[in-house]
Amino acid sequence: MFPGVGPQLDAYLKSLVEGPQDWLIGMQSEDYPGYDKIIEAMRAENTDTQIAKGTAWIGTPEEIIDNIRLYQLETGGFEHASLQVNFHNLDLGEAERSMRMFAEEVVPVFGQGA
Question: What span, in angstroms and rounded, lies between the C-alpha atoms of 74 and 109?
Answer without folding.
Answer: 19
